[in-house]
Amino acid sequence: MRTLAATPRYPADTHTYNTVDTIHDIAATLEAVAQSTITQFALVSISLSFEEDLYRQERIDLSKRYFLEHLRSLVRKTDTVLLMNNSFYFILLGANLAGGAIVQERLWDALLWRVHNAADGDILRPYSMTIGHSAYPSPHEQALDCIAAAHEPQQNFFAPEKPVHKYAARQDRRTQKVVRESPDAFELPLLAQEAGMPYLSLLPRKLPLKLRQLISPQLAQELGCFPLGRERDTLTVAIAHPGDRHILDRLRQETGLHIFPVLAPQHELQTALEQFV
Questions:
Q1: Which fold has domain 18-158?
Q2: Which residues are bridge partners to 235 per DSSP?
Q3: Tens-digit pLDDT string for the chain (277 aa)
Q4: Second CATH level (architecture) for the domain 196-275
Q5: What single string gives the DSSP state of each residue in 35-91?
Q6: Most buried of 1, 9, 49, 246 (most Cβ within 10 A)?
Q7: What angle do CA 87, 264, 250 make, to 5 degrees?
């Protein structure tokens, strides 16, 4: 097993990362950090899933490094960042569990934006992504426990390539007319794909104060939208109806920000809005 140094082996004024082969390499890095002068750290884990294909592997490698290089600059240069297969690990030196949650939110918002706006034709969009976080020594004193906890998804993203089925349709035998069925949970990812936006099946139940200050509960209820995060001058919001431009235009007017929409199930959006008081 290859043991990595507890501190980065590169100039302190650059953002970079190390590549590792196994979970045990990551555990060894965490143990080395724990045995140094660092008394606590948080761990954020991001996993990407691409459609596997021998002929696409070079593009998969290019894509995951493209996303990681853009995320790397969002944490401190002194933090340790690792790449293993299609997963990223951010070791946030000196941070606790709450600090890990804050960085998780920042990285997730930036990743969603980057995936949605990847301009290079060689960059592949993952068909799913997850993110989670944990911390040492509280609540996890063992490196492998800390890694396992960070692997528990706290946010997820689905963007299927091309679902086999489109909207369900049936023929009414009495009128001989084709009747279009209402969209169900299976069709929502397709709706998102056709609208050119990400799809989230689950939404958070608690929002940071800074997001509450951008959109009031009253406005969120009125428009049927739920704020997810802010990255510079772009606000990410969950909506249930991708074709409703009124919602996006109103949000731009009220916040003065660019709006990055994400499609979410109506029932999930309603549950999140009930908590947004």
A1: Alpha-Beta Plaits (3.30.70)
A2: 230, 259
A3: 343 434 444 444 567 899 999 999 999 999 999 999 999 999 999 999 888 766 678 899 999 999 999 999 999 999 999 999 999 999 999 999 999 999 998 898 888 888 877 766 788 888 888 999 999 999 999 999 999 999 998 888 775 444 333 333 344 444 444 333 434 555 776 676 666 677 777 777 677 777 778 888 889 889 999 888 877 788 888 888 867 788 889 999 999 998 888 888 888 888 888 887 6
A4: 2-Layer Sandwich (3.30)
A5: TTT---EEEEEEEEE----GGGHHHHHHHHHHHHHHHHTTS-TTSEEEEETTEEEEE
A6: 49
A7: 115
Q: Which residue has the tokens 């997820």?
A: 156
Report how far residue 259's alpha carbon sits from residue 113's, in angstroms, rounded to the nearest whole number.
Answer: 11
Question: What is the domain partition of the chain in residue ranges?
Answer: 18-158, 196-275
How does strand 18-19 pair with strand 80-84? parallel
Question: What are 103's two structure tokens?
Answer: 């960085």
Return the amino acid letter for 198: P
Q: Both tokens of residue 273?
A: 């809005």
State how far the Cα of 266 lies from the Cα of 263, in Å rounded to an integer: 9
Element housing 97 (H / E):
helix 97-117
Dist CA 272 CA 266 (whole Å)? 10
Q: Give the bridge partners for 178, in sequence order.
A: 171
